[in-house]
Amino acid sequence: MKPIPAESHAYEFCFIELDYTLVRVEEAEGEVTIRATADTFSRQRKLCFIHELAAEGFIPDEYRWFSLAGPDGCSRGVRWLVDHTWLKVDEALIARTQRRSKRFLVPATMLWLLMIYLAFPSPDRAVHSAVGGRNPKEYAAWRREQGIGPKPELMADR
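^ thats the sequence. predicted structure below, dont judge the formating
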Protein backbone atom coordinates (compact mmCIF):
# COMPACT_ATOMS: atom_id res chain seq x y z
CA MET A 1 0.00 0.00 0.00
CA LYS A 2 1.35 3.41 -1.03
CA PRO A 3 1.43 6.14 1.59
CA ILE A 4 -0.68 9.18 0.82
CA PRO A 5 1.57 12.21 0.56
CA ALA A 6 0.83 14.96 3.01
CA GLU A 7 -0.78 18.02 1.62
CA SER A 8 1.58 20.90 1.02
CA HIS A 9 0.69 24.56 0.75
CA ALA A 10 2.58 27.47 -0.73
CA TYR A 11 1.75 31.14 -0.30
CA GLU A 12 3.43 34.19 -1.76
CA PHE A 13 3.67 37.64 -0.21
CA CYS A 14 5.13 40.98 -1.29
CA PHE A 15 6.48 43.46 1.25
CA ILE A 16 6.48 46.87 -0.41
CA GLU A 17 7.89 48.64 2.65
CA LEU A 18 10.90 46.28 2.60
CA ASP A 19 12.14 47.15 -0.91
CA TYR A 20 9.53 44.94 -2.60
CA THR A 21 10.85 41.79 -0.97
CA LEU A 22 8.96 38.75 -2.22
CA VAL A 23 8.37 35.92 0.23
CA ARG A 24 7.19 32.37 -0.44
CA VAL A 25 5.94 30.30 2.50
CA GLU A 26 5.86 26.54 1.95
CA GLU A 27 4.25 24.30 4.54
CA ALA A 28 4.49 20.53 4.24
CA GLU A 29 4.38 17.79 6.85
CA GLY A 30 4.66 20.21 9.75
CA GLU A 31 7.80 21.82 8.32
CA VAL A 32 7.70 25.46 7.24
CA THR A 33 10.15 26.89 4.73
CA ILE A 34 10.16 30.62 4.16
CA ARG A 35 12.03 31.85 1.10
CA ALA A 36 12.69 35.58 0.76
CA THR A 37 14.24 37.29 -2.26
CA ALA A 38 16.38 39.56 -0.05
CA ASP A 39 17.68 39.69 3.50
CA THR A 40 15.53 42.66 4.54
CA PHE A 41 13.83 41.13 7.59
CA SER A 42 15.22 41.73 11.06
CA ARG A 43 15.17 38.85 13.55
CA GLN A 44 12.19 40.44 15.37
CA ARG A 45 10.30 40.99 12.07
CA LYS A 46 10.86 37.34 11.11
CA LEU A 47 9.37 36.23 14.41
CA CYS A 48 6.38 38.54 14.03
CA PHE A 49 5.81 37.30 10.48
CA ILE A 50 5.81 33.67 11.63
CA HIS A 51 3.33 34.53 14.39
CA GLU A 52 1.11 36.36 11.89
CA LEU A 53 1.17 33.38 9.52
CA ALA A 54 0.08 31.05 12.33
CA ALA A 55 -2.62 33.45 13.54
CA GLU A 56 -4.06 33.76 10.02
CA GLY A 57 -4.02 30.01 9.45
CA PHE A 58 -1.37 29.81 6.76
CA ILE A 59 0.82 27.51 8.87
CA PRO A 60 -0.02 25.22 11.83
CA ASP A 61 -1.26 26.93 14.97
CA GLU A 62 1.66 25.63 17.05
CA TYR A 63 3.90 28.28 15.45
CA ARG A 64 1.87 31.04 17.09
CA TRP A 65 4.14 30.68 20.15
CA PHE A 66 7.29 29.95 18.17
CA SER A 67 10.50 31.66 19.29
CA LEU A 68 13.72 32.28 17.39
CA ALA A 69 15.64 32.59 20.64
CA GLY A 70 18.65 30.34 21.14
CA PRO A 71 20.91 28.57 18.69
CA ASP A 72 18.23 26.05 17.65
CA GLY A 73 15.64 28.72 16.89
CA CYS A 74 15.58 28.11 13.16
CA SER A 75 15.96 24.34 13.37
CA ARG A 76 12.68 23.62 15.16
CA GLY A 77 10.47 23.32 12.09
CA VAL A 78 11.00 26.69 10.43
CA ARG A 79 13.69 27.38 7.85
CA TRP A 80 14.24 30.93 6.69
CA LEU A 81 16.16 31.15 3.42
CA VAL A 82 17.26 34.02 1.23
CA ASP A 83 16.61 32.44 -2.14
CA HIS A 84 15.25 33.86 -5.38
CA THR A 85 15.37 30.65 -7.45
CA TRP A 86 11.65 30.04 -6.90
CA LEU A 87 10.78 33.09 -9.00
CA LYS A 88 9.58 32.24 -12.47
CA VAL A 89 9.57 34.53 -15.49
CA ASP A 90 6.09 34.90 -16.93
CA GLU A 91 6.55 34.09 -20.63
CA ALA A 92 3.08 35.41 -21.54
CA LEU A 93 3.90 38.76 -19.95
CA ILE A 94 7.18 39.00 -21.87
CA ALA A 95 5.42 38.17 -25.16
CA ARG A 96 2.70 40.77 -24.53
CA THR A 97 5.26 43.43 -23.67
CA GLN A 98 7.24 42.72 -26.84
CA ARG A 99 4.09 42.92 -28.98
CA ARG A 100 3.13 46.26 -27.46
CA SER A 101 6.61 47.72 -27.83
CA LYS A 102 6.77 46.68 -31.49
CA ARG A 103 3.33 48.18 -32.12
CA PHE A 104 4.35 51.57 -30.72
CA LEU A 105 7.98 51.70 -31.83
CA VAL A 106 7.42 52.58 -35.50
CA PRO A 107 4.77 55.31 -34.91
CA ALA A 108 6.84 56.82 -32.08
CA THR A 109 9.93 56.90 -34.30
CA MET A 110 8.00 58.52 -37.15
CA LEU A 111 6.57 61.14 -34.79
CA TRP A 112 10.04 61.88 -33.41
CA LEU A 113 11.48 62.29 -36.92
CA LEU A 114 8.62 64.63 -37.88
CA MET A 115 9.24 66.75 -34.78
CA ILE A 116 12.95 66.95 -35.56
CA TYR A 117 12.17 67.90 -39.18
CA LEU A 118 9.83 70.69 -38.09
CA ALA A 119 12.03 71.96 -35.27
CA PHE A 120 15.26 72.12 -37.27
CA PRO A 121 14.54 73.09 -40.89
CA SER A 122 17.19 72.60 -43.53
CA PRO A 123 19.04 75.78 -44.68
CA ASP A 124 17.40 75.68 -48.12
CA ARG A 125 13.93 75.35 -46.66
CA ALA A 126 14.59 78.17 -44.18
CA VAL A 127 15.66 80.59 -46.97
CA HIS A 128 12.75 79.63 -49.22
CA SER A 129 10.23 80.06 -46.43
CA ALA A 130 11.70 83.49 -45.59
CA VAL A 131 11.42 84.70 -49.21
CA GLY A 132 7.99 83.26 -49.91
CA GLY A 133 9.26 80.16 -51.69
CA ARG A 134 11.32 82.11 -54.24
CA ASN A 135 14.96 81.95 -55.10
CA PRO A 136 16.79 84.67 -53.07
CA LYS A 137 17.99 86.41 -56.24
CA GLU A 138 14.49 86.41 -57.73
CA TYR A 139 13.16 87.75 -54.45
CA ALA A 140 15.66 90.63 -54.44
CA ALA A 141 14.67 91.53 -58.03
CA TRP A 142 10.99 91.40 -57.13
CA ARG A 143 11.58 93.70 -54.14
CA ARG A 144 13.32 96.21 -56.38
CA GLU A 145 10.41 96.07 -58.87
CA GLN A 146 7.95 96.68 -56.08
CA GLY A 147 9.99 99.52 -54.66
CA ILE A 148 10.47 97.71 -51.39
CA GLY A 149 13.70 98.08 -49.51
CA PRO A 150 16.42 100.73 -49.49
CA LYS A 151 16.51 103.22 -52.34
CA PRO A 152 19.63 103.04 -54.52
CA GLU A 153 20.18 106.83 -54.24
CA LEU A 154 20.16 106.56 -50.42
CA MET A 155 22.66 103.73 -50.58
CA ALA A 156 25.09 105.97 -52.55
CA ASP A 157 25.25 108.50 -49.69
CA ARG A 158 26.64 105.99 -47.29
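The mean pLDDT is 79.
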